[in-house]
Amino acid sequence: MDKSQLIKVGSTVYLKPINNAARYGRKDILEKVVLKKGRKYFYTGETETRRMFKFSLEDMREVTEYSPDWELYLSKQEIIDKEEKKKLMSDIRSVFDRWSTADLTLDQLRRVHEIISE
């Protein structure tokens, strides 16, 4: 199912700060409600009188003249899973980095090889 079909007025979405929003200290995940939905765009926010965020239905990206500040997710678990994957990949890369010597036994290396060969 296409993500844009899951967007409905009144549904909850989660915004993760990226680019300038993340760079200048914003780390919290915002929980917003879809306020309006058209054919090409939808808007999230708290109320229509306060600041609304405009997103494209086609690619689910924030529509802005400059670089986007927010990445949209349909559940908080998606964000948590993505962050965990990023951390695990970083940890694995640091162990098998070209310049590091991994203190792994032959048995451990065989098991790792078996897993990555799947």
Question: From N to C, what is the helix and strand string?
Answer: HEHEEEEHH
Tally of extended strands? 5
Contiguous low-pLDDT stretches (5 residues minimum) are: none
Distance linking N and C termini: 28 Å
What is the radius of gyration computed over CA atoms, rounded to a whole number of angstroms? Answer: 20 Å
| Beta-strand fraction estimate | 15-25%
Cα shape: elongated
Helical percent range? Answer: 25-40%
Please state the average pLDDT score. Answer: 86
Task: Count every helix, treating DSSP H or I runs of 4 or more residues as helices.
Answer: 4
Task: Please tag this protein with its features.
elongated; 118 residues; 5-stranded antiparallel β-sheet
Describe the protein's architecture and organization.
The protein is of the alpha+beta class and 118 residues long. Helix content is 34%, strand content 24%. The chain has one domain. It contains 4 helices and 5 strands, in the order H-E-H-E-E-E-E-H-H.
Can you describe this structure in just a few lines?
The chain is α+β, with helices and mostly antiparallel strands.
